[in-house]
Write a structure and sequence with these properties.
Layout lengths: L5 H12 L5 H8 L3 H14 L2 E8 L7 E9 L5 H10 L3 E6 L5 E7 L1 H13 L4 E8 L12 H10 L7 H8 L3 H13 L3 E7 L7 E9 L6 H11 L4 E6 L5 E8 L2 H11 L5 E8 L4 E2 L3 H11 L2
Helix pairs in contact: 2-3, 6-7, 7-8
């Protein structure tokens, strides 16, 4: 039995792009009833796929960028020590312990100096053998100035990004009409990210990253990703694409190890793919990134 069917996957995609989409909007888009949509979302939460609805600042709001980091370790490294060092570093917000004993990290950094400082910190840790940092190709959003009314609305939404218009109006003291207009402006501004944290390893599923190195003379990251979406609509979710070399890290969720082996074998046959290495990881540790903590700090200011 499939863990996520086509409607579940479509819901995941829509809500990951904007977690405030209404049940009725999703029902009309996916041509099912609003009641069915509500039940499916509740089931995704119960299964642990959707962990928490979130709102955060776009990277441009705090002048930062995202990067994906490969950390190769020595066989005798102290895993507890490394994990604590990663966990305590504010730029590192996702820690993926790989089955090989190595790590993959999601980080944010500010400018070339911030990138150099973070790289130097990781490389000097005991047990780290090699580190590769890949600034990623993502939409960093837009930088805007926030007004007082926008902050009043955000103070409610940061507690529950899916809070109803009526509830936000009641908490903020604004009219429902004004609240609706402000939320629409916040979403369209591209200065905020309304999504959710999720667990690809929910249930007994197997999550893995396909590290794909490709020949840029033959293929592009876009052409490879289009192939993945076409051939593996249910299993493939998204890619972290390196901005400095032809490498991408594509996330899959499958039912069994055999499914992963088949996907890896097929992907190696794609025109332009030079090498492919599956990175299987244990449950991810996710902490609030600076794009979230800075928003909390901003809203706590008088």
């Amino acid at each position: 039995m499939l863990f996520l069917d086509e409607i579940d996957k479509a819901l995941w995609k829509e809500l990951y792009g904007n977690c405030r989409l209404s049940y009725q909007y999703l029902a009309d888009k996916l041509e099912v009833s609003a009641t069915a949509i509500r039940k499916r979302i509740d089931r995704l939460i119960e299964r642990g796929v959707i962990v928490e609805w979130t709102i955060s600042l776009a990277p441009a709001m705090i002048d930062c960028q995202f990067a994906f980091v490969e950390v190769n370790t020595e066989e005798s490294h102290d895993s507890e020590y490394l994990f604590k060092e990663f966990y305590d570093r504010p730029e590192i917000f996702v820690i993926l312990p790989l089955t090989t004993g190595d790590y993959a990290l999601h980080v944010v950094y500010s400018g070339a100096e911030g990138l150099f400082e973070l790289g130097s910190f990781i490389r000097q840790l005991d047990g780290v053998k090699e580190t590769k940092i890949h600034p990623t190709l993502v939409d960093n959003g837009t930088k805007i100035e926030l007004g007082g009314l926008q902050k009043r609305v955000l103070k409610s939404l940061i507690k529950d990004p899916r809070m109803s218009i009526a509830e936000v109006a009641n908490e903020s003291g604004l009219t429902a009409r004004r609240v609706r207009k402000i939320i629409d402006q916040l979403i369209k501004s591209n200065a905020f990210i309304f999504d959710f944290t999720w667990n690809p390893n929910a249930g007994e599923r197997l999550a893995f990253l396909a590290r794909i190195e490709y020949d840029s003379r033959i293929a592009t990251s876009e052409s490879i990703e289009m192939k993945l979406r076409t051939d593996y609509n249910l299993e493939f979710f998204y890619s972290h694409v390196s901005a400095i070399e032809p490498v991408m890290f594509s996330l899959f969720m499958v039912n069994h190890l055999f499914d992963m082996e088949k996907i890896v074998k097929d992907l190696r046959m794609i025109s332009g793919v030079k090498t492919l290495r599956p990175l299987i990881y244990y449950s991810a540790t996710v902490v609030a990134p600076p794009t979230t903590t800075r928003l909390q700090e901003l809203l706590s200011e008088n």
